[in-house]
Write a structure and sequence with these properties.
This protein is of the alpha/beta class. It has helices spanning 15-23, 76-89, 95-107, 114-129, 148-158, 176-181, 210-217, 221-227; strands spanning 3-7, 26-29, 43-48, 51-56, 135-138, 163-166, 185-188. The chain has one domain. The relative contact order is 0.21.
């Protein structure tokens, strides 16, 4: 059975995003959709002593563009984000393990397109830091037409999948009967039950960037995302 996940790219996503990557044989970035302001595309949360704090890439206020069209016109934020990450995570047990990788992202390269940055981070973290074998594609490769659910169904069909996993938020517009008619199994992702891990600055917060998990538990991160569910021994 070939499982596909289709999702917009996010900036340094939380662990649940990578749980979906793990579930997929094929993960398709779906960035030729409307960019939504104050969403996860250009920002995420990190853990700080008073709770969680947003770190946001400035991309302007233009509402008439696709996610893949969003330009990053200034690079000052890169140094600012890296200094913020260093400040709050520098003393974590595994910060040094990943420091060189993230320094290259923030200080060694300049990013002009939001999708390009997000895709690079998600692919690299998945493959190099979490050791996933998932294949990544881009929805723009499939020559899509139509709108909303029709467009999604076209993409799912062209991806030649037997099983589609969706995040729970899509229950608002997905019609399960459409998948049944197409002979495709529809599954809903359940984000409940994630075990807590040693996190600085209690109380514990699940809904923060994957950076938090990586810097705190290092190579044990996969267990806290999916290994616990598969019955693997706890680290």
């Amino acid at each position: 059975m070939r499982t596909v996940v289709i999702l917009q790219s996010n900036y340094i996503p939380w662990k649940g995003y990578f749980d979906l990557v793990h579930d997929a044989d094929l993960f398709i970035f779906y960035d030729d959709l409307q960019f939504t302001k104050n969403d996860w595309r250009n920002r995420n949360k990190i853990k700080i002593p008073k709770g969680a704090e947003w770190i946001t890439i400035p991309v302007g206020a233009d509402a008439h563009r696709l996610i893949c069209e969003v330009e990053i016109k200034d690079s000052f934020w890169q140094t600012k984000h890296w200094k913020t990450i260093q400040h709050y995570y520098g003393k974590c047990p595994h910060f040094a393990r990943y420091q060189a990788f993230f320094e290259e992202v923030y200080l060694g390269r300049q990013w002009g397109n939001l999708s390009e940055l997000n895709h690079y981070l998600i692919r690299s973290i998945s493959k190099e830091l979490l050791n996933l074998k998932t294949v990544f594609r881009d929805s723009r490769e499939y020559g899509l037409s139509g709108q909303k659910l029709d467009r999604l169904m076209e993409l799912v069909t062209k991806a030649e999948t037997d099983r589609y996993i969706s995040g729970p938020a899509a229950k608002d517009y997905i019609e399960p009967a459409r998948f049944t008619e197409a002979g495709i199994e529809l599954a809903w992702k359940d984000y409940s039950g994630y075990p807590e891990y040693p996190q600085r600055f209690p109380p514990f917060e699940h809904g923060v960037s994957i950076l938090d998990l990586l810097f705190n538990v290092g190579p044990d991160a996969p267990w806290y995302i999916w290994g616990w569910r598969e019955g693997s021994l706890a680290p």
